[in-house]
Every structure is written in structure tokens, then in C-alpha cells.
Amino acid sequence: MRFSEAFIPTLKEAPSDATSISHKLMVRAGMIRQTAAGVYSYLPYGYNVIQKMKAIVREEMNRAGGQEFLLPALQPTDIWERTGRLEAYGQDVFRFDDRHGHEMLLGPTHEEVITSIVASDIRSWADLPKLFYQIQTKFRDEARPRFGVLRTREFTMKDLYSFDADEAGLDKSYQKMFEAYCRIFERVGVAYEPLATAETGAIGGSASHEFIVLADSGEDHLVKCPKCGFSALLGETVCVAPATEPNRAECELKIVSTPGMTRVEQVAGFLKTKPHRLIKTMILEKGDGGLLAALIRGDHELNMSKLMGSVDDWGLKLASAERIAEATGGPVGFSGPIGLSGITVLADLTLKGETSMVVGANKEDAHYVGCEVGRDFTPDSFCDLRKAVEGDLCPKCSETLKLEMGIEVGHIFKLGTRYSEKLGATFSDASGKENPVIMGCYGLGIERTVAAVIEQSHDERGIILPKSLAPYQAIILPMQAPEGELVQLGEKCYNLLKQAGVDVLLDDRNVWPGVKFADADLIGVPTQIVLGKRGLKEGRIEIVDRRTKEKTFLPIDVTADSLRDAVAG
């Protein structure tokens, strides 16, 4: 392709609303343009990168024995109601009525659709195992789309679903996918962590792994132990606080005025105490409409995933101000555990045995001081409900954990029979007995992975694409006006590389050399072939590696094979 004919609208500056590195660079490199909040158009250069990513994923899924489907983005809601997931996904699902009054949704995932197909067409143990996958557009009405293509409302995912006759078969399918995912991420050249997780969220299942690409500007927190190598998502980490003596001081419970103070920092400052001496009480609404109170220390943050897992309720959400006032007798910001009735109360483990704490008094502008856990209120249970913090201890070896940032790019689950039982996907075993098919689910974000690669692989000049994802393996940069020996040499190299089957971009634009170098660095083509007057005089061609900036040289009378080999590295 000639640069003069290509559509690669590069920009000197990133848009003001771009915050992540990948967002800034993908816009500047002419890969994407925003159409609406969380909705992006992929321009030719960016779409070619996406197609390269899809090809890698498709190769590895086929290598593992997968068969490719294309399932509909448009789905009836009734099959989601049968599995109980319509309520769990809530407002994240795009829902609407068609002209006939049938309620439909735009699929955020496809477990129901693929399981329905298996229910109608797989009958016997002899038909199993099966690995079915697709690469399809998904839709989720994200409350806060951000970070460019890392969190969007329309995105592409690869989903593979495994169907087995028994748990041993599921284990084999799961291992196949685990290894396939490792190969995919190794092929695109990213540092990643496969983290075993217990929380499977609205997808469900008994076990899972999340694949996290390490990146400073990532949106997922993970913890790593520098001693034993333990690593886990922040939300999945069993929190082990450093050993401290709980406050056992005798204290009198009394109510104090805290006018207009609804935040921990305000109350702590006013009462001249520390945030960890406060108990935050959060009132939540359960999926069945009941209420639950979750208690954590004032300096900690509630982990919703842990809380949902503790009560096995994935429809849990913060209660409205009206329900809080009705249940506690006080407004939002002044809730506390003392005197609560008809509400399940769960407290974080760090609160066990604590005395002289500050809690909301369940009435406006008031808090209790001198609260003692177990004397003034007794939780229904103590659980690990908080997010890990810097300084927590490794649950394996007790070393102090370090916090890092990353981007989730893949997630694999052992689903078991959750969907097959509800949707009637059964098979007859060798004895003729009907059994539910045992399932696994394996998702990978296509655009997210590309963005994660850029988050890891860039420098101050722009993107550094791995050869596996680059639309062009080389860019030819003649440092001369449209006519002359360098231009002729550029045409020669261009034709030789095309003849050798190499995807190549010839910058034939009549622009300053600085513009050519800047754009070549920005879009991240792996190899730059620089044709300058000095090289012409010395009878050589300069080959520059975009990642390392290392230079090699070839004679001007270069052959197609030697030029191809130099580009291949």
C-alpha cells in the first residue's frame, strides 16, 4: 500500500477526553474514531490490526479442536428468563420490544443461545465432547464507558463453549483452553498473569481463571507477593491484615451530634479520631427484595464481588435512599448497625472484637461513639468483605503484598450444569440414562487485547506493534521529493517486498522527512527502511527496528530474498 492512497489520518495531539495510553495512541495513529460514548469506528489501519488479532485467536481455537459458529446478536429475552440471568444483568442489557411486541435484547454474551442449540441437536454421549466458538459483536450498556476501547458498549469477543459428558471431560476441555489462551498472549508478545479466581459473577460456575495483561494504566488491581510469587486479583485476594491488638478499652456508648457529616473523613476529623475507628454501614437490596447491611472499617472499601459470593446473590445492589430511610429511620450517610431489625448484618473480619468505634446513629446529623462489637450489636456473621490494601499480608507466606495494575483480556469458567439443566441440554449415557451436559465457557476480548498490547508496547514516539499484529511488516521512507534516485530506490524496494509476499507501506507523500519519521514511529510498523542521501552515497540501505532502534544495512543492489529476510528479522 502507498501512504498517499491509504487512509491513516494521524494526529499530532490526542483528544482532551482521552486518558489511557491506548486511547490516546489509537486515536492519534488513525486507528479509531469515537462515534458515541463507548462506541467506536475502526478505520482501515485499526481494523487490520483487529483482523490480525482475530486470525491468531481463530488459529488457536481451531488448533484446540474448536468449531466456529456465528450466533445472533439479537436474542429473545425468554431464554434469559429461563436461566434467571435477565435480572442479574439488569441495566447492563440493551432491551427493547420489536414491532410485534416481543421483548428482545442485544446479546452481551451467548450461553443461552448455544445451549439451546445443543439441547435440540445433541442426544447421546457419543456426540460429546464438543468445542463450539464464535467471534461476534457484543453489547453492554456500560454505565461509565472509558479508556477508549478498553471499556465500551459495543465490542468483539471470542466465546468458546465446551460440552462434555463428565467432570473429567470438562477438566480436559478447560486445560485445552487454558493452554490455547497462553499461546495467544505469547504470540502477541504481552506480559500476562493467569489468575485463578473463585468469583464467577453473572456467568456462574464452579471455578475460573482471569488472564490479566500487566499495565500501569490498567483498570484492574492485582496483588503480587515478591517472595513466593502468589498473585491474585484484588477482589479475589483473601485479606490478611498485619497483626494488631484490637482496642479493648472500656467505653461508654453515647450519641453525638455530627451536623451534615456523611463522609468518613468528615466524621473522623470532627471527632478527632482516625478513619479506621469508624464502621461504615452500607444498606443493600437483595435480588429477592430483602435488605442486607454490610459493615467494614472506615479506611477500607467494600468488595461487592466478595459480598455477593458470601450471600450467593448476584443481583445485590445498593438500596435507594427511600428504602434506607424506611429501614433505618435515618437518611443516607447516617446508617449504623445498632437497633437494625429485619435486616441481615454481615461484618468484615477486621471488626471482630473491636471496641470504641464510631457508627451511624440511624438518624440525621448523629453518630454513636464508644460502640463495641458484640455488646452493642451482634452481626449475623463475620466474613472477608473488603478489598485488599497495600500492606496486607500474602495468604500463602505472610510476606507484605505489592499492588499492581492490569487489564483483564480473557476469562475462562467451569460452568457445570447451570445452563444445561435450565435449558434442557441433556444426553443419554451408555446405559440409556439422561444426564445434563457439563459445560465450560471461555471468553476473550479482541479489541481489549489489542489495546492492552499497546498499553504495554509503546514509547514516547508512539505505538510499537508486534509483527504478529502489524498490518504492514515494513514501511519504506524515501527522504526525497517525488522524483529522484531515492524515490526510484523506494519503488524498487516496494516491488521487491511485494514480490516476496511481505505486507509493506511505501511513504510516497511529498512531505518533510520529519513528518515521515513521526508518522512511522506513531503507527508502530515493526521495521523502517530508511532511504537517505548519505546511504545512497555510501551504497547502502538502512534497516531500523522500531522497537529497539537497532540499525542494520543492506547494499543498494538488494535482492527480494535479502530484503525479506531483513524485514523478518
Question: Quick recap of the structure?
Answer:
The protein is an alpha+beta fold and 569 residues long. Helices cover 27% and strands 28% of the residues.
Structure, described:
Helices cover about 25% and strands about 30% of the residues. By secondary structure, the protein is α+β, with helices and mostly antiparallel strands. It folds into 3 domains: about 20-235 and about 405-455, 2-Layer Sandwich (BirA Bifunctional Protein, domain 2), CATH 3.30.930.10; about 255-385, YbaK/aminoacyl-tRNA synthetase-associated domain (YbaK protein, Alpha-Beta Complex), CATH 3.90.960.10; about 475-569, Anticodon-binding domain (Rossmann fold, 3-Layer(aba) Sandwich), CATH 3.40.50.800. Strands 3, 7, 8, 9, 10, 11, 12, 21 and 24 form a 9-stranded mixed beta sheet that branches. It has a 5-stranded mixed beta sheet with strand order 16-14-15-17-20, with no helix packed on it. Strand 14 and strand 15 form a beta hairpin.
Oligomer: single chain
Question: What structural class results from the helix and strand content?
Answer: alpha+beta
Give the mean pLDDT.
92
The total count of helices amounts to 15
The portion of residues assigned to helices is 25-40%
CATH architecture of the largest domain: 2-Layer Sandwich
Q: Any idea of the CATH class of the largest domain? A: Alpha Beta
Number of domains: 3
Please outline the helices and strands.
Blueprint: H1 21-28, E1 32-36, E2 39-42, H2 44-63, E3 67-68, E4 74-76, H3 77-83, H4 85-89, E5 94-97, E6 103-106, H5 111-121, E7 130-139, E8 154-164, H6 167-187, E9 192-197, E10 207-214, E11 220-224, E12 231-233, E13 254-257, H7 264-270, E14 279-285, E15 291-297, H8 304-311, E16 317-318, H9 321-328, E17 344-348, E18 357-360, E19 366-371, E20 381-383, E21 402-416, H10 418-423, E22 426-428, E23 434-436, E24 438-445, H11 446-456, E25 458-459, E26 462-463, E27 474-478, H12 485-499, E28 504-506, H13 513-523, E29 527-531, H14 533-538, E30 540-545, E31 551-555, H15 560-568
Parallel strand pairs: 3-7, 15-17, 17-20, 27-28, 27-29
Antiparallel strand pairs: 1-2, 4-6, 5-6, 7-8, 8-24, 9-10, 10-21, 11-12, 11-21, 13-19, 14-15, 14-16, 18-19, 21-24, 22-23, 25-26, 29-30, 30-31
Helix pairs in contact: 1-11, 2-6, 2-11, 12-15
